Amino acid sequence: MFLSASLAILVTMVLALIRALRGPTVYDRVLAVNMFGTKTALLLSVVAFLYGRPDFLDLALAYALINFVGVLAVLEFFQKQSAKPEAGEAQDVDRH
User: What is the pTM of this model?
Assistant: First the structure.
């Protein structure tokens, strides 16, 4: 049963990688990378249960937290990049 769960997680990780590589927009790719990180934490949890190593759960939680903070940082970066005016555009400046 846990072997089939691990296999299902691996299949969804492969699908997330495919979406990350072929995603039509940047946000699709970021979402796919976030999903891949979440599935990695889930796979670490299943492996921890299978081998009887509860210390792997701490690693899974730390990885999930780093994944979450990293995705927020990347989204903030892309949001600031999209807010910048292009090189040829005129900037709106209020002059009173």
Answer: 0.78
CATH number for the domain whose boundaries are 2-82: 1.10.287
User: Which structure tokens are listed for 88?
Assistant: 């040829």
SS (H, E, C) the chain: CHHHHHHHHHHHHHHHHHHHHHCCCHHHHHHHHHHHHHHHHHHHHHHHHHHCCCHHHHHHHHHHHHHHHHHHHHHHHHHHHHHCCCCCCCCCCCCC
- Domain boundary assignment for the chain: 2-82
CB atoms closer than 10 angstroms to residue 66: 12
Tell me if 12 sits within 8 A of 36, measured CB to CB: no
Contact 22, 34 (CB under 8 A): no
- pLDDT, one tens digit per residue, over 33-62 is 999 999 999 999 999 999 999 899 999 999
